[in-house]
Specification:
mainly alpha, single chain, about 210 residues
Length: about 210
């Protein structure tokens, strides 16, 4: 039975992580620049961040849902941040060039923290987890913080595997893209794609806020 919770964790994290997000973009960007190892380290941090979201959904699903309903400004803030960051990526080529203090100088713990924050501070994915946990709990098997420790551990391990696995797939896609482009063209293309993706995420979220 506990293996079932492992499978559920992998499936839910895989589905949630399949949609473009900040951690996906960071891993693709690292892979496209030939920094596959850095992308993996970001992915590991994102896996831990996904566990945090799953834990919140299990423990405080009702509280968190009520909090987000009472504080819609959090969703608006999310839209604003992604619009700004996406715009910066689109116009990055026009910004003054700085001496490259390569991100390769960053430590493993820094990239792990980066991945964790990109995954954990993600209101849409938290909402996904709240809905997913509610659906599984009411239609399939019990999925709550009241489960025995072994079931919870298997579930969270599945969440980690699912998130890291989907990010590795994104990373391999980024690597293939990189090998097909010249260095300069690749750089411009990746910045443009990242900017468009971030702005697209913000627009979709804004439409959801407006319609709902």
């Amino acid at each position: 039975m506990i293996v079932l919770y492992l499978i559920i964790g992998v499936l839910l994290a895989g589905i949630g992580g399949a949609f473009p997000g900040a951690s996906n973009i960071a891993v693709i960007s690292a892979a496209a620049k030939g920094r596959q190892r850095q992308g993996h380290q970001i992915a590991y941090g994102a896996g831990l961040g996904e566990i945090s979201l799953a834990f919140l959904a299990l423990s405080y699903s009702m509280f968190v849902a009520d909090f987000l309903k009472m504080n819609p400004w959090i969703k608006v803030l999310f839209v604003g941040v992604f619009l700004i960051v996406g715009t910066l990526f689109l116009f990055k080529q026009q910004l003054p060039k700085r001496k490259k203090k390569s991100s390769e100088s960053g430590s493993f713990s820094t990239r792990l923290l980066q991945g964790y924050l990109l995954a954990a501070i993600n209101p849409p994915v938290l909402l996904f987890w709240l809905v997913a946990v509610a659906l599984v709990n009411s239609n399939y098997v019990e999925l709550s913080a009241m489960l025995d420790l072994s079931s919870l551990l298997f579930f969270f391990f599945g969440v980690f595997l699912g998130k890291v696995g989907i990010l590795m797939i994104y990373g391999s896609t980024g690597k293939r893209l990189a090998s097909k482009e010249t260095k300069k063209r690749r750089k411009v293309c990746m910045h443009t794609l990242i900017g468009i993706a971030l702005i697209g995420i913000a627009v979709v979220q804004a439409l959801r806020l407006w319609i709902i």
